[in-house]
Amino acid sequence: MNPYILDYSDSNDLGRQPDHNDPRRKRMYRTLKRVLILSNGLLYCVALAYLIRQHTELNQIRMHYHDQVIQYDSLLAAKLETEQQVAALHRQLVLARRAGLPTGYP
Fold first, then answer.
1. What pTM, to 2 d.p., does this model score?
2. Which of 100, 103, 77 is nearest to 90 (CA)?
3. How far apart are CA 96 and CA 99, in angstroms?
4. pLDDT at position 65, please?
């Protein structure tokens, strides 16, 4: 036979653990929940700040690249213009030599 005696006299127990309604336990879970929410919020804010920083850096790099492209194009245009001027002066020099005009160059 079973040596234990079951007592059903307390109807408020309902088989729960004795410290189920303990205020310290509720406070601990509430604090843990707040810590988790705050840490997730902090993580979200850090990720958002990182994305904003990356976006700003990317825009700065694009602007710098476009500035370099414009500078390179202007240098190429200046080089082409200079080469055209040198070619025109060379043609004038050749025509002057053929015509027998003094060019001032040996």
1. 0.53
2. 103
3. 5
4. 97
C-alpha–C-alpha distance, residues 50 and 42, integer Å: 12
3-state secondary structure of 9: coil
Spell out the long-range contacts of 83-89 with Cβ–Cβ below 8 A and sequence spacing 24 or more: none
Residue numbers in the chain where pLDDT is lower than 70: 1, 6-21, 103-106
Residues 6+ apart with CB under 8 A from 105: 93
Residues contacting residue 93 through CB under 8 Å, at least 6 positions apart: 103, 105
Structure token pair of residue 98: 């053929």
pLDDT of residue 99: 84
